[in-house]
Design a protein that fits this description.
elongated; transmembrane; DUF4282; 3 helices; membrane; single chain; mainly alpha; DUF4282 domain-containing protein; 85% helix
Amino acid sequence: MRDWFMFDKMITPILLRIGFVLAVLGALAAGIASAVNGEVLRGIGIAVFGIVGARISSELLILLFRIHENLVEINHSLKSK
């Protein structure tokens, strides 16, 4: 619990993963809804590009947090020397 209050442990990466799952479900729902309304190709496009877009944006944001984790690790290893 101390890690959360001292901001040593980030909660945003966990929320990003949840957001990614919700975005994928939303893209699938929008794609299916479009396909049901007779626009099958548009529905497939929405589903595919929505999922890929959600993945790319999530990866870019997670990348920032991974960089932060690596910098913290380097900082701890330099302090211990």
